[in-house]
Amino acid sequence: MKKNKLFISIIFMLIAALLILIMQENSTTASEASHQISVIVSDSNSARWTRFRAGLEQAAKDYNVNLNYVTTTKLDDMEQEKSAIDKEIDNGTNAIIVQLVDNVTAHDYITERSKNATIALIETDLEQPDTSKSYSVTQADNQGIGTALGQLVSSDTTNDSVGIVTGDSAAVSMRFEALQKAFEAKNVKISWTVQNSEEAVLKQIGSPAAAIVTLDNETLEEIAEDYKDTKGKVKIYGVGCSDKSIYYLDSSKIAGMIVPNEYTMGYVSLSKVAIFLNNRMSKIVDTTVNYFTVTKENLYSTENQKMIFPIVG
Predict the structure, then answer these.
(1) For residue range 138-165, what is the model confidence (pLDDT) as tens digits?
(2) Which residues touch 273 (CB under 8 Å, ≥6 apart)?
(3) CATH class (in words) of the domain with range 142-239
(4) Topology of domain 34-140+262-290, per CATH?
(5) Which of 3, 68, 217, 242 could potentially form a cystine with 38 if both were Cys, beta carbons 3.0 to 4.6 Å apart?
(6) Where are the domains of the chain?
């Protein structure tokens, strides 16, 4: 009988020791996972970031990290962005996810600052990246977006001439180059090219085009607003991702648009950084996210609905 009691006591002691070890392991894991990741994008509260931010928040929840979504106004130059990045690093953030406002001049700065914190770029890479990079990139397929946009516009044979509004985001150069090639292949005349919507309105008066094509969400919204009462006399196409752009598409103010998968961009960019922070031996690889060609006719397809209105757990 005494032997049985002793045996039972030993079993209980072993179980208690095992439970303590499990609790300590869980505590250690939670501690290791509680890193801070800051995110810096231009005009952070703009509706164009809604889906991107939803992806960030879901990944932060799944990987147990502290997400610091930095409040910004429109960042007009790299000096403003440097100031925001420096402030986050000085405040001790473990990593920064950043949308570059200028991917041409930022090379040396990003390379140097990546020594102080993990840096991940979104939307576009540096214009001249190093072979061995000190940062990672999660970007849209900007070349594919430009090609798809050109194919969408040229699929309507009445679009024999176009005006292009490039916008000023760092991602537009690759989109523009691919768009031009797509138009050349289909013999679509480019009547004019400008950077902003104000210039576009003036150009359209002097040299009317059958369609106006934009390369970023902000410019698409502005052009759609400018021409919303023209009853389709000029067709509007572009790259968009905001609820406002989707509304204009649904109400036929926009003829069609290319929608980058912003939710996936947000989720993947943060999850890659979180995994790396928890295991420095892991390698952060570059990722290119997909996009969708959306018109009023396929807006409510199952696939497009999942992308436009992702279910966040």
Answers:
(1) 999 999 999 999 999 999 999 999 999 9
(2) 37, 95, 97, 118, 120, 136, 284
(3) alpha beta
(4) Rossmann fold (3.40.50)
(5) 68
(6) 34-140+262-290, 142-239
